[in-house]
Amino acid sequence: MGRTVLHCDMNNFYASVERLYDERLKQVPVVVCGNVEKRHGIVLAKSEEAKKCGVKTGDPLWMALQKCPSAVAVEPHFERYVKYSRLATQIYEEYTDLVEPFGLDENWLDVTASRLAFGDGVTIGNRLRERMKKELGLTISVGVSFNKVFAKLGSDRKKPDGLTLISEENFREVVWPLPVEELFGVGRQTLAFFRRFGILTVGDLAHANDTLLKHKMGKVGAQLKAWANGGDESPVLSREEQNPMKSVGHGLTTPKDLTTPEEVWHLILELCQDIGEKLRRYKRKARGIALDCKDRNLVSRSVQKTLPAPTDNTMTLAKEAFSLFQSRFTLSEPLRAVTVRAISLEEEGATQLSLFAEDNAPSRSSAIDRVTDQIRHRYGKDALKSATLLDRALPDSHGYIPFRGFEPQEEK
Ligand SMILES: [Mg+2]
Questions:
Q1: What's the topology of domain 175-228?
Q2: CA 249 to centroid of ligand 1, rounded, Å
């Protein structure tokens, strides 16, 4: 069985949210418009009734009011839209962690893995429509399909508060008779070209001549034709995939110049506590480390290096950053600011074992990291710092730092 992808589109989103905040708007057509006072603002969104009067997004307000004299114009409140967008996402995320937004009011959900727990796509889609109405007071239209392009097409079919299933069995009947511009990715220029060559419906595109498409449109033409035939393979991206973390960095400008290696070590260790914590929280490991030092004349220099093995361990990061400092910097000019960045991040689990066994051993200091994270999470960042932050001891020639309060011990 193939994928199950939902596309959920909140109906008349801005206008619907404004109605939640003002009872009086429930009985009248609503247009959301920048600069209501000046009357030459532009319509950003409208309710279903205003749409029926012919009001279009982009109309000047005076024109919208001519078309729909009973409409009430309100100014937009983006913080409200962001709030309701988040609330909707929270509901979607109860069904899958693959939720990909498209603007504030649309989301794709890949529920393939959720079918066992929650039922098929139609069941989940209907459940979502009910919950949106009951919990948020908003309606959504849902498209249920085996890919993103058809799911989006589906959510456009029945508005407001509808659900449309476009399956591998029925898509030829449902999708092919539709005007070709309803397909995702067919913009005004593409449409003009299609019309010139008699491609008027999605079905026409599905059967269009490959040579013509390729000659006139290159890769895009072939892709649109594949989409018309149900061949969209693009995945619904999780939040992390949409916004992959490239590096985690932390820097501080010190109130007083740093003049000794001890002071630099102290600061690096403090920075690495935050960095390590973030890496562990997002389940990333760094394959490299970068150090940026700015002297008191504000001249800055950056260096970086690859680590022997990927790590999220605070003390390893700090030692590596400090050894980088010692090998590449002198304190001929006192320092004013230091930034450490964990770079070349990889997801946990992707880690290849190092050739050197000691790099792989689950270390005592990872256990310390875990406990430290919990305490810092509960009581705040300053609740617990490595003892070295207090006694300022430097790593010895083996990179080992004598803890105060812990018995010195090599990592095994
Ligand atoms: Mg919408």
A1: DNA polymerase; domain 1 (1.10.150)
A2: 37
3-state helix, strand, coil in the chain (%, to 5): 45, 20, 35
Give the tokens for residue 285.
Answer: 């490991």
Going from the Cα of 89 to the center of ligand 1, the distance in angstroms, rounded, reads: 14
Instruction: Please identify every residue annotated as catalytic.
Output: 106
Looking at CATH, the fold of the domain delimited by 245-391 is given as Dna Ligase; domain 1 (3.30.1490)
Q: Spell out the domain ranges in the chain.
A: 5-11+79-169, 13-78, 175-228, 245-391
Which structure tokens are listed for 106?
């649309």
Q: Which residues surround ligand 1, an ion (CB under 5 A)?
A: 9, 13, 105
* Residue 11 CA, ligand 1 centroid: distance in Å: 5
For ligand 1, the distance from its centroid to the CA atom of residue 323, given in whole angstroms, is 54
pLDDT digits (tens, 9 = 90+) for 272-325: 998 998 898 888 899 999 999 999 888 889 999 999 999 999 999 999 999 999
DSSP 406: S
Give dist(CA 288, CA 298) in Å, integer: 25
